[in-house]
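Materials and Methods. Structural model of PadR family transcriptional regulator. The 108-residue sequence of PadR family transcriptional regulator from Actinoallomurus bryophytorum was retrieved and submitted for structure prediction as follows.
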Amino acid sequence: MREQSYLILLALAPEPLYGYGIIAAVKDLSDGRVKLGPGTLYGALDRLAEDGLITRDREEVVQGRFRRYYWLTGPGREALEAETSRLTALAARARRRLAGPRISGSPA
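The predicted structure was written out as C-alpha cells:
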C-alpha cells in the first residue's frame, strides 16, 4: 500500500472528513512530511473508492463551498489494520537488526 493511501485511510478511521480535512489530517499524522495537493488527494480518493476501501458519506455546501465527505468502509478498515500490523512487524524487525552486533571495521 502506498504511504499516501495508508495515511488517507488512517485519517478517515475516526470520522468522515472532506478534502481539506483529509489534507490537514495527513499532514498532522506525518508530522508535516506528507503534503497532499488537491490533484493527488482526489486521484487517491478515486482509487480508494474504486477498490471499495472508502465511500462517499455525504455532501454539503458550507459558506458557498461544496464539501464531499468520505468514510472508511469495513474492507477499508480491514486493509488499514492489516497494513498497520505489517508496518509494526517491519519496525520491530528493524529495531532488532539495528540493535544487533556490528561487525568490527564496518562503518558506524
